[in-house]
Amino acid sequence: MTVIAKFLGPLIKSGQMTLIHADGVTELFGQPEAGFPNVTLRLKDKKVVRDIMLDLRLGAAEAFMDGRLIIEDGDVMDMIQLIRSNRPWERDGKLKEVAIWKRFFDFFASTFDQINGLGRSKENVAHHYDLGNDLYRLFLDEDLQYTCAYFADDDMTLEQAQAAKKAHIAAKLALSPGQKVLDIGCGWGGLALYLNKIADVDVLGITLSEEQLVVANARAEAAGVADRVKFELMDYRDLADRDAGQFDRIVSVGMFEAVGTPQFKTFFRCCANLMTGDGVMLLHTIGRFGRPGKTDAFTRKYIFPGGYIPALSETLEASEHYRLMVTDMETLRLHYAKTLREWYQRTVANKEAIVSLYDERFFRMWTFYLAGATAAFESGGMCNYQIQFSRNRSTLPLTRDYIGETEKNLIV
Questions:
Q1: Residue 116 — very low, low, confident or very high, per pLDDT cuts 50/70/90?
Q2: I want to staple 388 with a disulfide (CB 3.0 to 4.6 A). Which of 114, 269, 328, 369 is the partner?
Q3: pLDDT band at 105 (very low <50, low <70, confident <90, very high)
Q4: Which domains does the chain have, with CATH numbers?
Q5: In the structure, what pLDDT confidence band is assigned to residue 90 with cuts at 50, 70 and 90?
Q6: pTM of the complete model
Q7: Cα(326)–Cα(280) distance, rounded to whole angstroms?
Q8: Nearest by Cα to 208 from 303, 273, 128, 101
């Protein structure tokens, strides 16, 4: 039995993996089963096994990116799904106390990579979001929504689900005409423009991505609302320090994952100081079902340096220091999995264009990222949280019925 067989044998029971080693030896793991993929992998050299055993995710990713791990039957989505789905987060079994050494390792492995000062935060954002707007146009919806969509109906298209996401968020903000809204991490400006259009509010969107800023400003000009929807290249900490005034509403979608645990309290302090006394904030973030964890080496190196997916406990704990009331909270369980599958399919369909923009290695890296993220939401411990905060217990209606009623009028 090979070294890797000792790992894969006990793991893969449902679905089948055929592994062809560099010396021609073939091993089979698992057996075909409905609902689980079957894949055939070929290893081009003996070092692939060593790299994978040293770090499963990073080793497999780099071997795949370099063409040393070849998927002959199935694709990278199938490969990752097969492994992940055989060990789902919600699996049965006796629960044990997490070892102290693992808690210690997870804490230090993540914390030092997340000390995101002002300069480093901009570098981290540029690493991912300044890859070029042409890439994102190839797999996102027309509004360039690069965050979890909201599938109010299971058969929605990606475009419909992204529109529903904006309506869902707008309903939770309880907007009124003339209010000042701050969008932290505004992306390409789609949500800010939407809020202005449906609620007659003034919006300031801030981003650390120069590529996103160009598009967002151009869109505001084209819509004729540049005087009411403004975008700036700015860190949330700088905005709080410059005495920018207070906002009636704050929204942040898909940005909190880039804050880093050492800055969680700073983030919520800045938000609290930027809100009016009866202000409302909606935080939409990827989260973990369980306890705090760490960012894997592949993601830190290639995708989101300085990024971290927060547990609900550490998110709420950080907010509790600054008189922010949690007035509503929702867990989106499978919405991002559906979103990511759409992005993956569009990425694969546009392979030729992406390879021409970058190269084959980049394309394989990007598909590995999307496939891994999909599996994390389908079988792993990832989800999305939408947490609504208020400064005043009397600001919002007594029941949450207003959310559904407002949303129904916005989704047409």
A1: low
A2: 328
A3: low
A4: 3-85 (no CATH), 115-410 (3.40.50.150)
A5: confident
A6: 0.92
A7: 10
A8: 128
- Cβ atoms of 215 and 206 closer than 8 Å: no
Residue 318 backbone class (left: φ over 0; alpha: ψ -120 to 50; beta: rest): alpha
Find where tokens 């079957």 sit. Answer: 38
SS (H, E, C) 230-278: EEEECCHHHHHHCCCCCEEEEEEECCHHHCCHHHHHHHHHHHHHHEEEE
Dump pLDDT digits (tens) for 51-87.
999 999 999 999 999 999 999 999 999 999 999 999 9
Amino acid at 24: G
Question: Residue 120, Cα to own-chain centre: how many angstroms?
Answer: 19
Nearest to 280 by CA among 159, 384, 372, 402: 402
- Tokens standing for 270? 């800045």
At 292, which amino acid appears? P
Distance CA 216, CA 28 (A): 51
When pLDDT is cut at 50, 70 and 90, the band that residue 129 belongs to is low
Can you give the pLDDT at residue 132? 84
Residue 147 CB coordination number (10 Å): 23
Cα dihedral 209, 285, 300, 270 in deg (nearest 10): 60
Q: Which residue has the tokens 């939770």?
A: 172
